[in-house]
Specification:
binds cytidine-5'-diphosphate; Rossmann fold; alpha/beta; CMP kinase activity; five-stranded parallel β-sheet; P-loop_NTPase; 9 helices; cytoplasm; EC 2.7.4.25
Length: about 230
């Protein structure tokens, strides 16, 4: 069976990475988390203490930074210039700054070129904000995953309530809504549903139900995988 590419986009906490990883596992495809790449660049820029207005320095730093995503049994490990930053890129500081840095068009071009390269051999499930609309416009299967902002905040809250108890559900909801707005309103490849993407509202859907729907869609569009 021919390999194909699957693009999964949507707002924060919609379930993209969870679903993309499971779909990739079921098809024997490679999962690529493009959000981790924007987070990795943001982490590097914060490490270097670059001021918010130093856009040219941020672009130069991005082009000389090596980002590697290595799939493994416990998910994906993210390396920045050889250093494992998998945990560090999920910090509140990175989350609070990533959409600002992801709005710089030249930074997006550098990462988009890497993402296109990663998908060139097909057999990739790539998740992000602009995959179906911009990075892989020819992906054979495109999904736009969404859910109400409340349920997305609740899902995220469940994940972090053991570690960051000082953050309330209301704060988290505001934070997610703010990030969605920035992602939707930026000029360079904003968060948008591609015209040919299938919209899935997962507010009332379980993870296995979403995975099943996507696998069925793959079956009907391209005859499966593997
Ligand atoms: O998992 P979560 O929804 O928190 O976000 P993520 O997928 O890790 O992405 C973090 C941020 O990176 C997003 O809020 C966007 O600002 C940016 N991003 C982007 O601009 N384009 C992508 N293809 C992926 C992420
Ligand atoms: O990648 P994205 O930010 O879109 O979301 P995620 O990190 O994959 O999912 C956020 C949380 O929602 C995870 O804890 C998932 O297990 C959970 N989730 C869920 O409860 N029901 C779904 N249908 C999808 C995700």
């Amino acid at each position: 069976m021919e390999k194909f590419n699957i693009a999964i986009d949507g707002p924060a906490g919609a379930g993209k990475s969870t679903i993309a990883r499971l779909v990739a596992g079921a098809l024997g495809f490679v999962y690529v988390d493009t959000g981790a790449m924007y987070r990795a660049v943001t982490w590097k820029i914060l490490q270097e203490n670059l001021p918010a207005e130093a856009t040219a320095d941020m672009i130069a730093l991005t082009s000389r930074t090596e980002i590697r995503l290595v799939p493994g049994e416990n998910g994906q490990t993210v390396y920045v210039d050889g250093l494992d930053v998998t945990g560090m890129i999920r910090s509140a500081e990175v989350t609070g700054n990533v959409s600002r840095i992801a709005s710089v068009a030249e930074i997006r071009s550098i990462l988009t070129a890497k993402q296109k390269e990663m998908a060139a051999g097909k057999g990739v499930v790539m998740d992000g904000r602009d995959i179906g609309s911009h990075v892989l416009p020819d992906a054979e299967v495109k999904i736009f995953l969404t859910a109400s902002v409340r349920i997305r905040a609740e899902r995220r809250f469940k994940e972090i309530c053991d570690t960051q108890t000082e953050m309330t559900l209301e704060q988290l909801e505001l934070d997610i809504a703010r990030r969605d707005r920035m992602d939707e309103q930026r000029e360079a490849s904003p968060l948008v549903k591609a015209a040919d993407a299938v919209l899935m509202d997962t507010t009332d859907m379980t993870i296995p139900e979403v995975v099943e729907r996507i696998l069925e869609l793959c079956q009907s569009r391209v005859g499966g995988g593997k």
